[in-house]
């Protein structure tokens, strides 16, 4: 089993925590946009209270370990690895709980190039434990507003993990997909599951809009988030999201493998 000490060292060496690639400028811009309720950064969360920029800096300092000084405006953001480790343990607890009752789960990512392998390993382990890994709305179209205008994507599943891809993608089931923060894919998937009369997920696992969109609709949701994604942490603070793990969500895909081993071991789901 990967020790907590070894994982902490890996988090820092891979820059998953500690000084990360996300800049302070990027994070502050996201906080300003969230305070203005810009849907591009709210990604499905409808906050109960009003959050201003100073509130968000305080929240992110508490949840992630970034600087709580509003006057600190440049440089790299810093994630406290201890906060990442605590959140990973809580994440594993939720996996263990749904596995113990063989509950239905839905997994989806807006970072398919980076995080698909992490979620796919969870899907395999949960399936082996008796959970139903749901794949609703497979092949349906999702219209998402991007900086280039309205774009139509197809909802697809790779190794049990949902993602969206360009409609002219040459092959379904391959590991390419589109980076998106939108909550529309998870809303489409959940609506299709409800309309079909099939099981609904007892736990949604993912990032970006997959977590926020599901949590806002009342589904238990857990996931990963970077320092420029305040919506997930606001959702956690207000109770709409169950667990958020602070880390850099865009490093090399193989850097997440030790996290996978650690979480599955903690959840007693190692195969």
Gist of the model:
By secondary structure, the protein is an alpha/beta fold.
β content, as a range?
A: 15-25%
Q: What is the number of E strands?
A: 10
| Approximate helicity band | 40-55%
Order of helices and strands: HEHHHEHEHEEEEHEHEHEH
Contiguous runs where pLDDT drops below 50 for at least 5 residues: none
Report on this model:
This protein has 271 residues and is α/β, with parallel strands linked by helices. The protein contains ten helices and ten strands. The chain has helices spanning 4-13, 24-35, 39-42, 53-64, 81-100, 112-128, 184-196, 208-216, 230-238, 257-266, and strands at 18-23, 76-79, 104-108, 132-133, 141-146, 149-158, 161-165, 203-207, 221-225, 243-246. Strands 3, 4, 5, 6, 7, 8, 9 and 10 form an eight-stranded mixed sheet that branches. It has a two-stranded antiparallel ribbon with strand order 1-2.
Secondary structure elements and pairings:
Elements: H1 4-13, E1 18-23, H2 24-35, H3 39-42, H4 53-64, E2 76-79, H5 81-100, E3 104-108, H6 112-128, E4 132-133, E5 141-146, E6 149-158, E7 161-165, H7 184-196, E8 203-207, H8 208-216, E9 221-225, H9 230-238, E10 243-246, H10 257-266
Parallel strand pairs: 3-4, 3-7, 3-8, 8-9, 9-10
Antiparallel strand pairs: 1-2, 5-6, 6-7
Helix pairs in contact: 4-9, 5-10, 6-10, 7-8
């Amino acid at each position: 089993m990967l020790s907590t000490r070894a994982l902490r060292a890996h988090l820092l060496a891979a820059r998953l925590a500690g000084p990360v690639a996300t800049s302070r400028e990027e994070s502050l811009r996201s906080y300003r946009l969230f305070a203005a309720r810009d849907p591009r950064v709210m990604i499905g969360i409808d906050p109960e209270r009003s959050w201003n920029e100073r509130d968000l800096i305080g929240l992110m300092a508490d949840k992630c370990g970034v600087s709580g000084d509003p006057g600190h405006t440049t440089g790299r953001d810093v994630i406290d690895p201890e906060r990442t480790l605590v959140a990973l343990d809580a994440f594993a607890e939720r996996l263990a709980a749904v596995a113990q009752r063989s509950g239905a789960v839905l997994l989806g990512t807006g970072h398919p190039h980076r995080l698909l392998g992490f979620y796919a390993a969870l899907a395999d382990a949960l399936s082996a434990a008796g959970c139903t890994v749901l794949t609703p709305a497979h092949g349906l179209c999702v219209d998402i507003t991007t900086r280039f205008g309205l774009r139509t994507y197809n909802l697809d599943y790779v190794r049990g993990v949902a993602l969206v891809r360009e409609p002219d993608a040459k092959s379904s089931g391959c590991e390419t997909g589109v980076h998106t923060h939108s909550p529309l894919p998870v809303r489409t998937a959940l609506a299709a599951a409800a309309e079909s009369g099939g099981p609904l997920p007892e736990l949604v696992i993912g990032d970006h809009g997959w977590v926020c969109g599901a949590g806002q609709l009342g589904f238990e949701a857990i996931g990963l988030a970077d320092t420029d994604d305040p919506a997930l942490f606001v959702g956690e603070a207000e109770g709409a999201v169950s667990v958020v793990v602070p880390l850099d969500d865009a490093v090399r895909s193989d850097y997440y493998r030790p996290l996978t081993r650690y979480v599955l071991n903690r959840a007693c789901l190692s195969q």
